[in-house]
Amino acid sequence: MPLLTIATFLPVLAGLVLMVLRDRSARVAHGVSIAATGATFLLTLAIWARGIAPGGFAQVEQITWIPAIGAAYRLGVDGLSLPLVLMTALLFLLCAIYSARIKEQAATYVVLMLMLETASLGTFLALDGLLFYVFFEVSLVGMYFMIAGWGHEERQRAALMFFLYTLLGSLPLLLAIIGFYLGTGTFDMRAWIGAPPLSGLAAMLALIAMLFTFAVKTPAFPLHTWLPAAHVQAPTAGSVILAGVMLKFGTYGLIRFAYQMTPEALAQAGQVVLAFGVVSAIYGAFAALAQNDLKKMIAYTSVNHMGYVVIGVAVAALAADPRIKVIALDGATLQMISHGLVTAALFFLVGMLQDRAHSREMADFGGLLGRVPWLGWAFILSAFASLGLPGLAHFPAEFQIFLATLDTRPWGVIALVGIVVTAGLYLRAIATVFLGEAQDRWAKMPDLDLRERLVVGPLLALTVLVGVAPGWLIGMIHATMTGLVR
Amino acid sequence: MGRDLSFLLPEIVVAVTAMLMIVAEMGRAARLVLAIGLAGLAVATLLTLPVLHAGTTVFSGTYRIDTISGWAKLILLPGTAAALLMARAEIAGRAREGSLYALVVLVTLGALMLSGAGDVMVVVLGVVLTGLGSFALVAFLRDDAGTEAAMKYLVFGAVTGAVMIYGLSFWFGGSGSTLLSDLGRLRGQPLVLVTGLAGLIVGLGYKAAFVPFHFWAPDAYQGAPVSIAAYLSVITKTAAFFALAQALRDLPREAGWPFALAVISAATMTWGYLAALVQTNLVRLLAYSSVAQSGYLLMGVVALGASPAAVPGIVVFAAAYVAMNLGAFAVVMVVGRELRDLDGLGRTHPVLAIALVVFLLSLTGIPPLFGFVGKLYLFTAAINAGFLWLAVIGILNSVLSLAVYLRLVVPMGREPAGALAAMSAPFLLRGVIAAALMATLGLGILAALLPG
User: Fold this and answer.
1) What is the pTM of this model?
2) Closest Cα partner for A252 from A322, A195, A313?
3) Partner of B14 at 20 to 30 A CA spacing, among B23, B39, B396, B451?
4) What is the ipTM of this complex?
5) What digits encode the pLDDT tens for the residues B78-123?
6) Rounded to an integer, what distance in angstroms lies between the CA atom of residue A342 and that of residue A356?
7) Taking every annotated instance into account, which residue ranges of this chain make up the domain NADH:quinone oxidoreductase/Mrp antiporter transmembrane (chain A) (predicted)?
8) Which residues contact B325 (CB under 8 A, 6 or more apart)?
9) Do A66 and B452 count as a contact with CB atoms less than 8 A apart?
10) Domain spans of chain B?
């Protein structure tokens, strides 16, 4: 059974079915949404159960598409994409559950979400350059309409900026893909990985184009400016998908394309990439420190966390010792998953707070821990995870990244400053919002209901699980990374 | 002779159809005229299929039956049929309605000649045939705007046509032959080559509306019936590109003409989108957008003879362009000519709004829509021919184009204006929009059917 194809297209098919249904009330729409994303999640678990092959792609599914130019429909999975696929399916399921409260144009909202899920899964699973690009771009369209339709006050402007910025960002990738194609005569990514087709100046140009694309997407300083605007205006589920899934397109591409297809050029440019990663990590932390808007603060911590991923990839390219390379790549990949879990939880919690108080300003709150203990403790746990506390999800990832950095380019560990600053800003946020004097106007604030606990619970459990016992996850990643390092 | 005529069956059918339409128009039977036209176009399209891969020439090399001319028929004939339906929806019941249909089919015959040209004389014939009919079409409404537009169009056309014939006489002098396949003899005569080419670019550039020969386009489109604007923006334009492709693929790549055309290409797309960015009239906006699209088609022309993706690129993008541009114009015909007419369309007419969004995203080049496949070929051709900088400019302009097209998308989400709710799309236009939508959505995914 072509499980990968079924999992990828099940959501969009469900969306199409919903479009032709006679009854498109909010109830039916959210029912379809939860059923489809739930089934997709189960399918990805089945893909996981089938397993991956070390040193290559497993479960490859292939159909010819444009034979004249060697483009085909090719899907496959390895230890880099499988964890991301699992996380994507889980986050979409949780978003579907969380979104069940949306009443305004619910059917259209659900169709867009399901389209986004197909695009996201397809991006991680595609083994054909052209197909990858198709999914990559379709996700932009979906997110544009998501922000423009269901965002907050300034949504039109933010959506426009998001679309223009990220389209500008993604088109250079198309040039690089065409370059690879002209070098090999096929769009098969396995061929590009097996024997990197470009060398010298061409490889460097392709790398620069790809770095631009992925730096916009990740986002890395100084190409991150679309992110806070988009996040603040996006609806909660939109923010979760944007941060949890779509930012990973950038870092996934960094490893899949930049690291695997132009390895020599990336090694040459490694110092520069590392510097951008370090600056991103530190800048993101300080910019987050300056925010009073909770959502904006979390958005900026994404710049910080994704900076560590960039550092990890750069170090892997620079390192001479294959063991260190593997450690760096393991750490970078694990960091993507940790960030997906933890940041998704934080955005959900801020969204839930906003649903209740219609405010995201830290100064508006105080002493909420006594009023809403579930929400408060969940936020505190996620915040501690986000600042890298041992025993929680980010620690094993960041530890491996810094270990490899220290061994390869010791100056890179100045990015540790970011962790200190992040710790400070989260403690400040916890102190202002959840501790201190309780305000009377929030006396009636209800705590998390069952649906909301169902959304946040799995993320918190996984955060702890990945922190305490990351072996099951790292094992999967490690098997592929050992084969990937040459 | 008999062999030659058998390959020309589609063209003959179109010519006979046009005659029959004129005869029927004499009886003032407009519906009959339309029916004959549609039937003739359908028959001609079917007759094209057997000779699609013929790869030969007829009448001692003056007319080509090859990939370009074959696919041109498959693109232009259905496109013309769609334009006829759009025209019917717009001008039904007017005086001289049937003559417009007959003229449209005659102009398409000229477009087919341009696409199959194997000889400079056939190019000239095609330019004249498309030109004369088009002037009359633009003036059809007989109001001030239409007359002014047609006058501009005519004067511009007469001058550029004369310059073209003058320039082409140099090629004849240099190569001793009017056959395009003999243009290889111009190798080593850069001055003759460039003079002739300059003439050809003036003549066909006017028809294809690329910078700096585009000034007539927004005025002519605005003065003409919207359906005729749609027709001119796709049929005569793409035919001019097919003619350029026929001529330039035999021309030696020397004297720097690819570079000069690349500069024109860059200027065309940039200027077109910058001008479109400030329009508030939808027809003018689409007019400038179609100027910019010419710039993309020129990327394929630049790569002729240097990349195997050039000819497929022109053909595929032309096909996509015909579908998505006709679709966009058809939506404009339903909604109205002003940008503010789109307010609230997404809420009152979601299907129409989705269709327009698909056409616009396809014009931008967002995958997996048809326009993306075309642009992919064109970018590949340009990079393959060594014009990476042109591809980069093309990409920057794609972002600019998104800004242009999102100006149409944003108002659709607003609160609807009063009159919009009662509006409904005429049956014919609904059919055209549905067909264009299926082509735009489906042919991107079924791209395997297209020429490689």
Assistant:
1) 0.93
2) A313
3) B451
4) 0.91
5) 999 999 999 999 998 888 899 999 999 999 999 999 999 999 999 9
6) 21
7) 128-417
8) B230, B233, B234, B286, B290, B293, B359, B363
9) yes
10) 1-252, 256-452
